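Just scan my protein:

. . .
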Amino acid sequence: MPTRHGHYCKICQTYKANEKFSGKGHAAHICKACSSAIKQQRKENRHENLIKDILFSIKKSKSLDEVKKSVVAFLGFADKNKKYIPQMCEQLARIITDAAKPFFESQSGEKKKAVFFPPEITPLLMISSCAPLNGGADTIIEGLNRFLARCDEFSEPALDIVTEEEMSAVLDSAQNKFRILDIVGMLTPLKIFTLHKSHRVFNCECGMAGPHSGDSTIFVYHPGNVSTYDRVFIFAHELGHALHQALTFDIKRIPDGFDAFNDALNLKDLTLKDKQEMFADAAAFAVLNCDELKAHIP
């Protein structure tokens, strides 16, 4: 056999020059290249395990504070390891989809027009409402930071928040009188997130998926001294915004015929914001069949 020169590496199973080995590598029969690859693999394994831990903590979170803490860890890791963001967001999107799926399923098998999400699942689902998980790394990080900012608006759970029974009564009236849920839930179900106590003025708001989308989400929370009538009316008002979005696919566009309604009330020089709020109010009055509406119609 020909004489072998150099030293044997047991990992790549080749003979290499002595300078290809460190002192420790020479004794362990591992060349520098293989030693570097092993260290890199160990680093990758540590990162993979850390990702699993972060995502598991998000999945098991039951409160806004727990989700917030996990998202902070997510952002801290992603900021230093941007190449993992697509993988992490894909897994996060799957976790959110799996968590939401049971709420979209009905016992009859029919497609739901509206879906209620309870407080324990809402914090997790809020992530996808703030951060587009299929976007680029910078977009996702910006969205998650927006989610964290939103978390700061809420504190302890409130017991006297508008109830699911009250909201269901509003939705039943809207559907029975005007088939509003057929319109609002035509593409995707209306999503209703039950949140926590807030310092905001009202106890509801309607969020839109995009400027040219019919997809709407109503966020329900409780700011303090709001009467039962007020909180139910405000929910109906936000349902009016969802109807506006579903009719026009653009909240900046006023539904056809509504300007004629304003003219009948002799209302002039209205801003876009005025018209948006008046449309939502009119929808709420109609759904709740309030006497106030009759008093203002000629």
In short: The first strand starts at residue 7 and ends at 9.
